[in-house]
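$ fold --in a.seq
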Amino acid sequence: MKRISFKHTLIVLIIIVTASFNACDDGYRINTKEMIREEQDLMADYLDIVHDTLKDVSYNVIDTAGDNSFLYFELKQGTGDSVKVGKEVGFRYMYFEIARDTTGVPFIYPYASNYESDSPFTYVVGNTNMYQGGTYPGIDIAMRNMAYGTKARIFVLSSLWSNDYTPRVVDLEVTYVEK
């Protein structure tokens, strides 16, 4: 009789614990489609503010996706051929995230840069594996359109970055290209 009682108690305890975990989880589910839509809206709203100005001062504008997931504005032309896949490239960067202020107006704020470091970030073009010396896919797309000395500002949704639903703006400058 004691064994049955213990067994029943254990089963009831498992049911209670499972039910409480499921109940706690309901309020924390992420609606991925909604997060993607909010990210796209934030990018579009910020682009509404800056697009025409950037287009007017750019030598080259590229929208590879047609949906604003990647926009490239070349602000200074480089020299030589475009960077090639398989070649090492060095670059300076300043990363910005797009956010909204308390009134809902989008703005950018800096969160990372290597302009103060002694050397540029280097990687082999085509390597987007962050754990093996690569870079973000959005940066890699930009590099393929740049040459030595090129300066560009790119706009990247997180699908070409780190999938965290935060749109980014990145200033890039190519400082080294393997021959």
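$ fold --in b.seq
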Amino acid sequence: MTMTVTTRAGGAQPPVPADDEAPALPKRPIPGALARGARGLCPACGAGRMFSSYLKVAPFCQTCGEELYHQRADDAPPYAVIFVVGHIVVPLMVIVEELFHPALWVHLAAWLPLTLFLSLVLLPPLKGMLVALQWALHMHGFDPASPEREEPPLVAPLVAPLLAPASRTPPAP
């Protein structure tokens, strides 16, 4: 059985009507967002903190209210840190070995702490840059029309102690 497919000249698809087009998303400057993300600031306003702790992204910006819970950084920041730290430490190790031929314990004493220090220092800025890049490119739920968009998380209020059961005293006889 033979099947024949006919297309327009040049293989061009018919134009999509203007009614079916999604509304244009606002342009978000990538360099500025990356710079704010590297400093751990909200990619939208640059004033609020992106992280609520060392690596935990706050669900919302406390200053402008931008939704940050859409981020999907996952394993990318550690991979980026391994890439960057490896490109710093390995050449230095080779240079020191070729120039000075130190004992193995010197290598261990020098490079292990440096690797650990660089990894811990670079992880938050690289994660912030990745979240900011996702925001700037309207990736995942940062696009209001995205099927990946999720409902906002329930943020525990600061009134939890008020909701705790009151100390119970036995009723008076």
